[in-house]
From TrEMBL, chain A:
Pfam family, one: HTH_3
Alphabetized SMART domains for the sequence: HTH_XRE
One GO MF term: DNA binding
Name recorded for this polypeptide: Helix-turn-helix transcriptional regulator
Gene3D superfamilies attached to this UniProt entry: lambda repressor-like DNA-binding domains
PANTHER family recorded: HTH-TYPE TRANSCRIPTIONAL REGULATOR, METHYLPHOSPHONATE SYNTHASE
Stored InterPro entries: Cro/C1-type_HTH (IPR001387), Lambda_DNA-bd_dom_sf (IPR010982), TransReg_Diox_bact_type (IPR050807)
Gene Ontology annotations for the cellular component aspect, listed alphabetically: cytosol
Domain of life: Bacteria
Upper classification of the organism: Bacteria, Bacillati, Actinomycetota, Actinomycetes, Streptosporangiales
Automatic annotation (TrEMBL), chain B:
Protein name, per record: ImmA/IrrE family metallo-endopeptidase
InterPro entries in the record: IrrE_HExxH, Rad_response_metalloprotease
Segments for region (Disordered): 267-289
Biased amino acid composition, Basic and acidic residues: 276-289
Pfam families the UniProt entry points to: Peptidase_M78
Gene3D superfamilies membership: 1.10.10.2910
Domain IrrE N-terminal-like: 35-156
Organism: Thermobifida halotolerans
PANTHER family listed in its UniProt record: ANTITOXIN HIGA1, BLL7220 PROTEIN
């Protein structure tokens, strides 16, 4: 897992959660300069930092590190026009699948 | 069997398995979620991304996503189309792109969607014996089955209510035109508001809320799923009586620890026992190492 890739994923998670870099730094207790270096790929994130970032952005550690592997095995069928590559929707559904897999790992039963 | 016939047969099978009769279907999202256990989400996406079905083969989890749109009839047909892909276990190579390609699978899923939304038999029950049809009947059909005029016209043609020329003429009509002309534009606007609204996948959200209550998921995860702010999510959950349970860590004071008797005799004995090797250790070699 390349540091730059993880940085990019953290940046996407931050944007999805609608948090400013400052707000994410405050919430995780990571200094803003460190967070900024992690996002730009200059510094690798340590595991406790990843866990804190995952919690505050509402993502899973697997999503941030790209170790979820769901994206490599999923199968899709789509309806699109004008040659759309479906990237937004693909990403949204991948997030659902990753979260669903995480809830499995946490032994959270389905309620309905 | 042609793609059209396959799609129709599957739609009839689905309706009969789910006891849906031949009546118009109401909330398609809920019907799909309850009938198949598949989670459905209505998402913000650009207008060329109509719908996507995604399956994780390892865990056999399936999600369907459709785009928020001001075109409610198209959203319904996309939902039904994606359900068709699920039932036929259609898979597109996700790396190849080219989602707009009209493959036999796409034609079959379209036929499935059409026959699911407006079964010929249901149309016959609704219209009974009729002579030549006017556009007001097309409007009634569109309003009743909540399908586009195009889909309604094809169904009317297949049920032999109209001829090919009339079908061709009606294919170009739009739902807003019919709704305005025949007085149900308020209902159409309500349908538009509904189809333009985001909707989180219900089962996943329910499970996530449970994980939040158990302290295994953060409030932000719920907020992201719902597409609302953290504060809104927190307020909503608190008002519903859902608060994360506290799992305090109990730290013991070292003085409170019980005295433990440790019998080291057995260890001493083991350490004092000579090695089992029959020959005495060669100390010279060991030193050289």
């Amino acid at each position: 897992m390349a540091t730059a890739d993880i940085g990019a994923r953290i940046e996407r998670a931050r944007a999805t959660a609608g948090l400013s870099q400052r707000a994410l730094a405050d919430a995780t207790g990571i200094s803003q300069s460190t967070l900024s270096r992690i996002i730009s790929g200059d510094r690798a994130a340590k595991m406790p930092e990843l866990v804190a970032i995952a919690w505050e952005t509402g993502q899973t550690v697997a999503q941030l590190t790209g170790t979820g592997a769901v994206s490599e095995r999923v199968q899709c069928a789509a309806r699109a026009t004008n040659g759309s590559d479906m990237s937004d929707m693909r990403q949204a559904l991948l997030d659902f699948l990753e979260l669903d897999a995480y809830l499995d790992d946490q032994a959270i039963p389905a309620t309905i | 069997m042609s793609a059209e016939a396959e799609g129709r047969a599957a739609a009839e099978r689905f309706r009969s398995q789910q006891n849906l009769g031949v009546q118009p279907l109401g909330d398609l999202v809920a019907i799909i979620e309850q009938a198949t256990g598949i989670d459905v989400a209505i998402l913000d996406a650009d207008q060329d991304q109509h719908g996507l079905m995604m399956r994780d083969p390892q865990r056999d989890a399936v999600f369907i996503g459709v785009a928020c749109t001001r075109n409610p009839m198209r959203q319904r047909s996309t939902l039904a189309h994606e359900l068709g892909h699920v039932l036929f276990a259609d898979v597109t190579d996700s790396t190849a792109g080219g989602w707009s390609h009209r493959s036999p699978e796409e034609i079959r899923a379209d036929a499935f969607a059409r026959h699911l939304l407006i079964p010929i038999e249901g149309l016959r029950q609704f219209l009974g014996e009729r002579g030549s049809l006017t556009q007001s009947v097309l409007s009634e059909t569109v309003q009743r089955f909540l399908v586009s005029p195009k889909i309604a016209a094809i169904a009317l043609y297949q049920a032999e209510y109209i001829d090919d020329a009339t079908k061709q003429e009606w294919l170009s009509l739009t739902t807003p035109q019919l709704a305005t002309r025949f007085g149900w534009s308020d209902q159409y606007r309500a349908l538009q508001d509904e189809s333009a609204r985001r909707r989180a996948p219900q089962r996943l959200l329910a499970r996530a809320v449970r994980a939040y209550a158990e302290g295994a998921l953060s409030i932000q995860a719920i907020a992201t799923l719902r597409g609302i702010t953290r504060q809104e999510a927190e307020t909503e959950l608190r008002e519903a009586g859902v608060v994360p349970c506290e799992r305090p860590v109990v730290w013991a004071d070292p003085t409170e620890l019980p005295d433990v008797e440790v019998d080291l005799a057995a260890l001493d004995e083991a350490l004092n026992t000579p090695d089992h090797t029959p020959e005495p250790p060669d100390t010279t070699t060991r030193e050289r190492e």
